[in-house]
Amino acid sequence: MSTDNVTVEGNPSVSDAFADADPYAGSYESSEGTIYNVGGGDWDTILAAPEGEKERLVVNMGPQHPSTHGVLRLILELDGETVTEARCGIGFLHTGIEKNMEFRSWVQGVTFVTRMDYLSPMFNETAYCLAVEKLLGITDQIPKRASVIRVMMMELNRVSSHLVALATGGMELGALSAMIFGFRERETVLDIFEAVSGLRMNSAYIRPGGVANDLPADGEARIREGIKVLRKRFTDTSDLLVGNSIWMGRTSGVGYLDLTGCMALGITGPVLRATGLPHDLRKSQPYCGYETYEFDVITETSCDAYGRFLIRLREMNESLKIVEQCLDRLKPGPVMVEDKKIAWPAQLAIGSDGQGNSLDHIREIMSESMEALIHHFKLVTEGFSVPPGQAYAAIESPRGELGCHVVSAGGTRPYRVHFRDPSFTNLQAVAAMCEGGQIADVIAAVASIDPVMGGVDR
Prior knowledge:
By secondary structure, the chain is α+β, with helices and mostly antiparallel strands. It has helices at residues 12-21, 97-100, 109-113, 121-136, 144-172, 176-197, 219-241, 245-251, 259-265, 270-273, 281-284, 305-329, 359-368, 370-381, 422-426, 429-434, 439-449, 453-456, and strands at residues 7-9, 26-30, 33-37, 57-64, 72-79, 82-89, 206-207, 210-211, 348-351, 354-357, 389-397, 400-408, 416-420. Strands 1-3-2 form a three-stranded antiparallel beta sheet, covered by helices on one side. The protein has a three-stranded antiparallel beta sheet with strand order 4-5-6. A three-stranded antiparallel beta sheet has the order 11-12-13. It is globular. It is built from 18 helices and 13 strands. Mean pLDDT is 84; it is low at 1-15 and 17-24. The protein starts with 6 loop residues before the first strand and ends with a helix. 45% of the residues lie in helices and 16% in strands.
């Protein structure tokens, strides 16, 4: 290389020559003398790599939101268009949720966990509440209506989460119509969530002991109507992409990971079921009464991005089957455990101004007795105590096994809460899926994993 891309210090003859050659070169005085900054260079004279070494290019894909389902950084080493090494850089979305929960009551913890995997809030809440209920020893005391509502809300959430996976995956590969269809259908589910809980996302609806409030008067009718709309519109995405030669060209054989690789890395969810193994915790380790529902575990054997796409497409229809069974099973009854030392003392009502305590419930508390008012205040502000111990509860989220480990020291706050989030575990598969493939296939492979960085960076 030429010597003009240097900083020259204290040599008048050399500095004068450079100043004459480059009128834009700046200079400043220092204790060492005059400093001249000279730019430029003869880049065509850069030496080639030593013999026997390949030229390599290291690029950062991200951290960004498009094409990476969250703030994910991928460090790729390239040999031309071929990925020779792929590594994940995480932590850009870290929220400290698990640590924050140590300073909040057990019920307040729900408002934190619902924000981890923000596409699956109902699953985060359920896993946490099941673990807390194990510690409290009230698993068998949860009202049947509350369990049915939990299952129904989770399956609707599974549909909305898969719709985002299909929509964003289509967008990243250029299928913009698939993106429009996916988010259009998701609105139907979010409208139901808003009608039931008052919020479209992060609703903190599922609470230890049951759910925050019962379905609204027109809740069942709205859900049945939503199912009809969803079933009719699901065909738009399948007609567009299933068997589409362009879509298959971008996904078939891409992001390959077989059963051996999944077992070695602890991969679960659609990525695992795309290898042909029908592993689903709703069947193998039932919870919330899933053993009493009729549905199929969807599998494929292609071990690639296209197989995972087909699984999510078919799983949405299975979820709607479960929701219909839930609607048929809904019988009048309480939606919160009877123990008043645990039951959240609120009867929520959704009015024109949003969600809040119903006025009738407030009047009852205020007029009943001073002791009732004190108990209400104490339970809301301090919370209930949980016996010392630890418990683990696992459920089948849209991305795989979502587990919650809670530890209690006997107080009104958790001693420790830790989640086994499938997005975090499944990201280990990036290197196995991408190395040896084309750089363009990295996008399809990551999209087929469907990671949500809110769950990764808890």
